[in-house]
Amino acid sequence: MPQDPKADETDETNVTVTTAQMKQAAAWYARLDGGVPGDRERAAFEGWLAADPAHRAAWVRIGDAWDAFDAIPEDARPLAEPPLRRPRGAGKSMFVAVAAAAAVAILVAIGTGVPERLRIEVMADMTTDVGETKTVELADGSRIELNTASAVAVDFVPGGPRRVRLLDGEALFDVAHDPDRPFIVLAAGIESRVLGTVFDVRTNGEEAAVTLVTGRLAVSAGGGDTILAPGQRVAYAAGRLGPVADADPAAIAAWRRGKLVFQDRPLGEVVDELNRYHPGVLRVVGADLAARRVNGVFDLGDPVAVVGALEAALDITSLRLTNFLIVLHE
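Below the sequence we write its predicted structure tokens.
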């Protein structure tokens, strides 16, 4: 490992660090973890470190993640145990080392998703960033409301079907009625076909779910077909459609009003949802805590404030590497 930058730091606490710079620091940490860098790699690292005070601050904060996890109780278990070794600071318990490794692995994992996101953005006609929503009117008068970190590609054939592919994220479609030109939305392996209706589609690239707000909607996937009525939802996973279920369209599309609605949802699922709107990483430590039930309506414009509200409501606490990495624990 190169010399610890904390040894000659002045005051890194007031330096503004971007998400991109945190990702860069995490990537360097992973590359240098436990090994002896060559002259070229050392020079590249030291060049990166000296290029911007924020780089040094980001590196220091990544290192601080190891020590921050000392406060987590020994009987709590992290949700993942990545195969990283602690590069410095002997004498820590095995749990603390694993938890600290999990922190850095989480940060590095963000970076591994960058190539896929770039591929999606190249394919997309319109996108939103993390925490951003956007409304777009199409040439036929239909409207698409994109939720956070979403991407769609539009393929309208003159006189033919109107096709939109949801590449990632979530979108609500308000379709202009045209009986001669069906409107088709593709997401993962699911196809939704309408003539005029309002419906919500959500995907992570491999699975998808469709919720109908108004009108009627034909959904097909994996050789199965179903018709949704308003207030119904169907999901696609493992290559097939699941059963039709009742849903609250107002709650499903609450993000359009800048809200998140949780009704008897496990904390783990709530935190997963918050992660869609937070540019950093939120995690829950411990299966029992992840199973705690949550009810409430929250402002999605400030996920960190929602975390604070959850801490107060559930009487739990958190460890924070600034607001970039927040770990909830009992």
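The chain has nine helices and 19 strands.
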